[in-house]
Amino acid sequence: MNRSTFARITRATLAATALAALAACGGSDDPDPLPDSAYVSWSGSANSVVILDWNNERFAVRTDSRAVAFYDNDTVLTGLSVNSSADVFSGATRIGSVTYTTATTGARIVDFTCLDGREMDIIMSGGTWTYRCV
């Protein structure tokens, strides 16, 4: 193999590797979801690590910090956490809990529930979040 052929093969290999790396990252600035092992697993829940809110948006609790994250891209909701007793906190204020409920399919799942027993809706907008009880 001459130098010219070797250089073409090397450039083609580097280009293919760069394209594969770009495709693997999805071409997005959004964080990639973590493996389920990075989240608290809810024993007996058909959704394993996923907690639903009122709108059926998917959240999870990170095992390392107990912070709540949007499950689809692991965006952490700053200040929202769940302790080991399944109490939900906004900063130091308890606002609800993670509770077992029955899905429309009949499966047992977990969701966010406000202190008054109503379902919690978590609203995310522009890097911030809030909640309401519905």
Briefly, what is this?
This protein has one helix spanning 3-24; strands at 51-52, 58-61, 67-70, 75-82, 87-90, 93-102, 108-114, 120-125, 128-133.
For the CA atoms, what is the radius of gyration?
21 Å
CATH class of the largest domain: Mainly Beta
Which structural class fits the helix and strand makeup? alpha+beta
Detail the poorly predicted runs: 3-28
Give the end-to-end Cα distance, rounded to a whole number of Å.
71 Å
- What is the number of E strands? 9
Average pLDDT reading:
84
CATH superfamily of the largest domain: Intramolecular Trans-sialidase, Domain 3
Proportion of beta-strand residues: 35-45%
Q: What is the ordering of alpha helices and beta strands?
A: HEEEEEEEEE
- Write out the strand line-up for the largest beta sheet, numbering strands in chain order: 1-2-3-4-5-6-7
Number of helices: 1
